[in-house]
């Protein structure tokens, strides 16, 4: 019997749980000594670089240090990649705020994030690119903006910074309209975001109900993926037992053979949670490549 998720979605911005602290120390080298040293080095690198601007408080810098296992130089390189990506696609991401995609989240059922974590404490993000994705109402770039906003919410959670995220892409009854919307240019933007410009630990990508035409398209995309991304991508077609080898059904909705309530992919429950962190999003939007000032004499 499906259980109901009565509690509203919450962004868990509090300190790490004891279990997550153990994981962080083991997998990310997050010890007091490493943290202090990495923060100092990263702060110095940022302050010496006039080409980018980022906040430099401890919590903000840990967003970049955790996915790079507290190697300050790697975190600094990640910051540069994010700045380059956002500058390259500034027409999509400049001043991105939840209000701009509120209608997409609430009414068009394309992206959501589950209230419950999985058995490993990872966040579960859902992408609906199947039949119910109305491509005449929601463009591929709007879909990407929604994913970007969900990423910002996940970045605020120390627990998610450590444990990572899992993405489920549902392609049920995908038709030619949806396939056509997944253009090569969009694929490059999406892959660039996931592999180069997302400061989160993507642990797994699960693709459900993948039709033949998508498999053909994936064959073209696959060479663009890193070895790590390829290894973490799993195709299940309609076999939910295959998905359950990775995610316990006790943490999945009935749509995926789980025991949680049925989903409709609407993100309206998530919006009030991110609305509490608009100041953070504004600060994030102000980060990135510095604008060159021309001094006219």
From TrEMBL:
Lineage, opening ranks: Eukaryota, Metazoa, Ecdysozoa, Arthropoda, Hexapoda
Organism: Popillia japonica (Japanese beetle)
Name of this chain's protein: CRAL/TRIO domain
SUPFAM superfamilies linked: CRAL/TRIO domain (SSF52087), CRAL/TRIO N-terminal domain (SSF46938)
Domain annotation CRAL-TRIO: ranges: 101-264
A GO MF label: phosphatidylinositol bisphosphate binding
Cellular-component GO terms for this entry: membrane
PROSITE patterns the UniProt entry points to: CRAL_TRIO
UniProt superkingdom: Eukaryota
Listed Gene3D superfamilies: CRAL-TRIO lipid binding domain, N-terminal domain of phosphatidylinositol transfer protein sec14p
InterPro entries the record matches: CRAL-TRIO_dom, CRAL-TRIO_dom_sf, CRAL/TRIO_N_dom, CRAL/TRIO_N_dom_sf
């Amino acid at each position: 019997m499906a259980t109901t998720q009565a509690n509203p979605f919450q962004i868990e911005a509090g300190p790490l749980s004891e279990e997550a602290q153990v994981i962080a120390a083991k997998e990310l080298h997050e010890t007091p000594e490493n943290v202090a040293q990495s923060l100092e080095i990263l702060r110095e690198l940022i302050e010496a670089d006039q080409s980018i601007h980022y906040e430099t408080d401890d919590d903000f810098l840990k967003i970049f240090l955790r996915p790079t296992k507290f190697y300050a130089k790697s975190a600094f390189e990640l910051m540069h990649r994010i700045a380059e990506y956002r500058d390259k696609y500034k027409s999509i991401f400049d001043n991105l705020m939840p209000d701009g995609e509120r209608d997409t989240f609430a009414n068009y059922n394309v992206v959501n994030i589950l209230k419950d974590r999985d058995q490993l404490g990872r966040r579960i993000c859902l992408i609906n690119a199947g039949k119910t994705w109305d491509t005449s109402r929601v463009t591929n770039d709007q879909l990407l903006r929604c994913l970007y906003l969900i990423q910002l919410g996940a970045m605020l959670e120390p627990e998610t910074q450590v444990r990572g995220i899992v993405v489920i892409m549902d392609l049920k009854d995908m038709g030619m309209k949806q396939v056509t919307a997944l253009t090569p240019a969009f694929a490059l933007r999406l892959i660039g975001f996931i592999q180069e410009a997302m400061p989160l630990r993507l642990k797994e990508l699960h693709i459900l109900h993948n039709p033949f035409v998508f498999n053909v398209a994936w064959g073209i995309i696959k060479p663009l993926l890193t070895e790590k991304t390829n290894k973490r991508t799993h195709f299940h077609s309609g076999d939910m037992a295959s998905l359950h080898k990775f995610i316990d059904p006790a943490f999945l909705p009935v749509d995926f053979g789980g025991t949680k309530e049925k989903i409709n992919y609407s993100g309206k429950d998530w919006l009030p949670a991110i609305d509490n962190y608009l100041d953070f999003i504004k600060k994030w939007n102000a980060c990135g490549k510095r604008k060159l000032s021309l001094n006219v004499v």
